[in-house]
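Give me the fold.
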Amino acid sequence: MAAEYIIIIMLIGLAAGVLSGLVGIGGGVILVPAMVYFLSYSQHQAQGTSLGVLCLPVVILGFLKYYQDAKASGTPIDVRVVLLLAAGFIVGGYFGGSLAIKIDKESLRKIFGIVLLYMGAKMIGLEKLIIQWVKGLFA
């Protein structure tokens, strides 16, 4: 692997790690688009690689920091919820991965973009405006 390629990969990982620790995002929001655009990965390769990263204990330090600080502030993280979500994530990840492989890369990329757009709009309170705009397209 060329040094430049390794540096790009490490910078993508660093950005995803910082944003994951900062706001709880990283894999789908940072890693996937970055691998598609900077590493020329297909949507399938990027999504699979992102899931592979999640298999490793790469976020444990961020989680432990949140756990300690939340506990100290009187708003503890419920580990039972973490474990139940993880169990659902495992099952859902398996079936979602099986479904994603059956979708062509361009359609998958569009689905991914729509999900990111909708979630971003929802987070900043624009989802109603976007839904009205989309409805207007088909009226």
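The first helix runs from residue 3 to 23.
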